[in-house]
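User: Could you walk me through two proteins back to back? I'd like the raw sequence and the structure tokens for each, with a short line separating them so I can tell where one ends and the next begins.

Assistant: Of course. Protein one, sequence then structure:
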Amino acid sequence: MHNYNLAAWQNSRTQAQGVGNAKGSWSEPKLLDSFRSSPLNPDHFEQKILQAYVQLAMTPEQTNGTRTTTLAWFGSVEIRLTEMPRSEDGQSYIPPFWLEVYSHDIGETIDSCGCFEFNETELADAADVLHEYMAGVQ
């Protein structure tokens, strides 16, 4: 799995996400039915990640240049895929795509996986992140 230093990125993500209500508490969105009804199948997770990847193309950029789509919610835990803006020189050692398991209760990423192009290995690594989290909540 690709574990890169994400401190600066996570800080910008936390500020950009501002999803609390007027009282400052987090709402609890429903778990997507496709995750509730599916077995813990890596192929299913890979399919959901690829669907989210395609959905990013239709997602508007946030003020910090990122695009984010949510795969599922589990109480206050959000599974999301984020595309980072490309560097000006076109080269980057930080993957442009990040799958995160993010807890809004604690305001931190529980687990994450960075991907450059979602090749077979990267997709399997990302699916493992989801599988590990789902196995823990079942």
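----
Protein two, same layout:
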Amino acid sequence: MIAPRTSSVLDFRHPVMWVGMVLFAAGAVRLAPAVVTVLVDAPGPGLLAFSLWTAYGLTLGLLVYRFEMFERRSLRTTAVAFASGAVLVPGIAMVASPALHGILASLRGGTSEWDSAIAAPLVEEPLKMLVVVALALIPGARVRNASDGLFYGVVVGLGFQVTENFLYSTQWSAQGTSLSVVMQTFVLRGFVTGLWSHATYTAITGAAVGFFFGSTRRLPTRTLTVVLSLGAAMLLHGFFNSPLLNLGVVPAAIIKGIPVLVLGLVTLRWVHLRERSALGADARDLVPDEHVSPADFAALSSRRVRQRARSRMAAQYGTGAAIAFGRLQRAQLDTLITAHDDGLESARYVQALQELRYARKDVAAATAPPAWLDTPDLPDDATTPSADAPAAADAEAAGSTESDALETAELPLTRARGAAPMGPDSAAVDSVDADAPDPMTTQAGHPSEESADQPRDAER
């Protein structure tokens, strides 16, 4: 992979960034009048719809951002993807979709109920996929595999879904002039059909885009994957918009959404297995075992396994230990991911190793026994002080004084009988011993109580 020239998706030296900015501005210019008109002509329904769909988009976006499989993506890149889906794509689609409707009407000699099933997929799905392609072309966005493509595809599709549903809500409420229409549209398009709408379509195509840019397969295989995924997304979108299965709005939406949901789950499973296999190989062959071993990755292989490990840690050591252990799991995954994407010599890998060391220290501190458990036990013969204790203490002190006096008197004799003759070498040894610092005190940065007795011990 190309080393990113900047750590951000906002790389103003990249031509794709400038093309995206121009298209974003064009989309905003086309979209803004429609939004302002709605808010001015019907302020009540307009503000309600704007508030509901903004909260809907932010809530689902946060859930998607938190629901990572292995890697936490850049929040800035996520915001750029969402804004592109919410502004750039609908702004351009508001020009291209009516034009395609007009072409279909001229070819057929009139309008048809199938026009929406044909025009919408042909315009919207390629536009949303091209946003993911643009992110993959900017090195700072770091779209390097199918998992990255799927994630940003979901975010782009969610942004488009929020804007489209807001416009539908305000259009229908303007016709009925009732706030209840806004609420009904919010429930229908946000929850009944929201699970298999644009976010799922673009997740399918985005995973293929990430596979195209990150896989080592042959170019025809990668190209075919992108073409088939785009065709599948357009086909499912067209089937959902078609007049088939006129069983009522809610039953038809559920039945038509089942194939979309199934293909979305299959794509998610495929992406998860690919990423787990790649990281498992890195733990086995690339990253040293003292950092992340294959056994460590076995405990990181899925969200469920990681959650169970944190639950056991919480049950045994408490909530603080579980939180520290979660940070350790995150650091281990980051170490594997940076080793896979940037190599063992990269600055990001060195930073990941530093975070891993800190996380391990935090876990060790959180699982260490309390300090009071390290207090030494009293001797077995220790008893509770009694009334005779002061007299015994005085006698012991008197005996100690007498013993010290005898020892002081015998010291010259001991030096004369047992010590080597004093000379230059002997004096040097005594001097070195007397001046040598205590290693325990030098580490603490100040002399201990025992250091004052060292010259006396050296003379002995």
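Residues 122 and 234 are 7 Å apart (CA to CA).

Let me know if you want the two compared in more detail.
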